Amino acid sequence: MPTDIEIAQSAKMAPITSVAEAIGLGPDDLELYGKYKAKVAAHVWDRVKGDPDGKLVLVTAISPTPAGEGKTTVTVGLGQAMKQIGRKAMIAIREPSLGPAFGVKGGAAGGGYAQVVPMEDINLHFTGDFHAITSANNLLAAMVDNHIQHGNKLNIDPRQITFKRVMDMNDRALRDLVIGLGGKQNGVPRQDEFMITPASEVMATLCLSQDLMDLKRRCGEIIVGYTYDGTPVRAHQLNAQGAMAVLMKEAIKPNLVQTLEHTPALVHGGPFANIAPGCNSVAATRLALKLADYVVTEAGFGADLGAEKFIDIKCRLAELRPSAVVLVATIRSLKMHGGVARDALTDENLEALRAGAANLQRHLRNVTQVYGLPCVVAVNRFPADTEAEIALVQQLAEEAGARAILTEVFAQGGEGGVDLARHVVELCEQPNNFRFVYEDSDPLKVKIEKVARNVYGADGVDFSKEAERMLRKLQKEGFAAAPVCIAKTQYSFSDDPKLLGAPTGWRLTVREVRPSAGAGFVVVLTGDVMTMPGLPAAPAAERIDIDEQGRIVGLF
After folding, report:
1. Is the N-terminal amide bond of 383 cis, ω within 30° of 0?
2. Checking DSSP bridges between strand 375-380 and strand 545-546, what pairing results, if any?
3. Which among 369, 330, 358, 359 is positioned nearest to 346, based on CA atoms?
């Protein structure tokens, strides 16, 4: 089978104007970025906001493993399958980050015959959104240090500056550094750190903003640090919000592209799910719900991370209500959760599969019983999967209260997801008991404990002294009703990436708590999770190249 990039480069794309016509958008509604990409103009929302919403379908997954799950591939394939069964459908997904693209994880445009295109553009600079967000973030950081340099009228304590610089690249050397060295003209020396752009507060703020004016308001609310007496200092006190909004005036507009089968796709915003909200923008999702009858969206990593944040943060703040959930799993990953080494995953092993399926069953329980949503398991098929293994997964899923449907969208495109699409349509018509994991009125500490116990399966939560202090401070400063965004390893329900399956008898450790006032939530750092990833020993960048004709090679 050809590689992902070979499939994407050989695809016959439709002009983006004709893709837009299928969802009722004309040439004046688009701001073109070449022939196959466009921003949707801001005035479109004013025209459609009174229209009824379509059905929102969330695609999530089991806890990820190096064996791969293919959540984005299933999301794209399901959108294509919806079109094949005659439904007016769109997909709404995140933009990829350059960090994983040049590191180890790869891109986020799907795979095989279930991709969004132009794949190379989407996985690289796309329409420049990440660069705009990075620039806006670093402008604010520069203004903080500049304010201190020129007299510090706001009395900012350099030791309590909480706002970090970012870049969209994995670079472990920037995790901990000292800035302002070299004399008086180079600023005030202090310890600082970089985060990767998908982890930044500005990224989350853009993704949770309704429009440009809401984005500007939210940027002004960002807490950059504290004064010597502990009073928070916000971006609007530096008059930074207007310039930040100027830099992101195009980035706030959703990007329209297409799948290999010309299903319209909004690809917009890109926060990671292990250290950030993990969902595409509210603006894109709300717009898609007005333009299509079915909107297939995804949340990053497993249903303990992306799906929980999609529900407790995005749906809560944007008043969204999903109709159904697709839980993606692979037999390979389930066997890895059952203790099988990566080089033995092609061997049939029903015992390990049964053991690893505990991970699937806990995620299923969370979706159906904790989140209160109807769910179907999409078994993303690999060539080595045996009939006995497929039958066992279907049996175990049914024992947990859901159907497991074999999907082959990677190899067959939309045709390989038709059965899944038909069942998803059925689920969307069922009444559901959608609910949040915690209430707005719960104290911040209780919110963290409810997620840890009810979603992760922890026995409880241990808070560092600094986390306890910050939680008390945030409760008093007006964050009591805010949702919590827990930063945790994606590889395990626990905060230990080595505890696979469905671990029990453990406690979550919270080491730090930070306000994300622009986005409207509180960030909770657990375990050893880092906000700036590093490159592997052999990064993907070593294999990526371009030939004399400008053709990119080695990109997945």
Report:
1. no
2. unpaired
3. 330
Q: What is the rounded average pLDDT of the residues 193-203?
A: 95
Q: How many CB atoms lie within 10 A of CB 154?
A: 16
Using an 8 Å Cβ cutoff, are 219 and 245 in contact? yes
Using alpha carbons, select from 91, 121, 485 the residue that is nearest to residue 298.
Answer: 91
Phi/psi at 499 (5° precision): -90, 90
SS3 state at 480: coil
DSSP string, 74-123: HHHHHHHHHHHTT--EEEEEPPPPHHHHHSSS--SSEETTEEEESHHHHH
* 407 touches 424 (CB < 8 A): no
Q: For 514-530, what is each residue's pLDDT tens digit?
A: 999 999 999 999 988 88
pLDDT tens digit sequence for 232-242: 999 999 999 99
Q: Which class for 535: exposed (0-12), middle (13-18), buried (19 or more C-beta within 10 A)?
A: middle
pTM above 0.85, yes or no: yes
The closest alpha carbon to 482, from 530, 526, 516, 434, belongs to 516
Q: Are 219 and 235 in contact (CB under 8 A)?
A: yes
SS (HEC) of 165-210: EEECCCCHHHCCEEECCCCHHHCCCEEECEEEHHHCHHHHHHHCCC
Distance CA 143, CA 130 (A): 20
Taking only the tens place, the pLDDT of each residue in 135-185 is 999 999 999 999 999 999 999 999 999 999 999 999 999 999 999 999 999
Tokens of 280: 């595409």
The CA distances from residue 225 to 11, 25, 210, 435, in Å, are 49, 44, 26, 34
Give CA–CA dist 268/203, Å, rounded.
Answer: 11
Asked if residue 76 lies in contact with residue 89, where contact means CB atoms within 8 angstroms, the answer is no
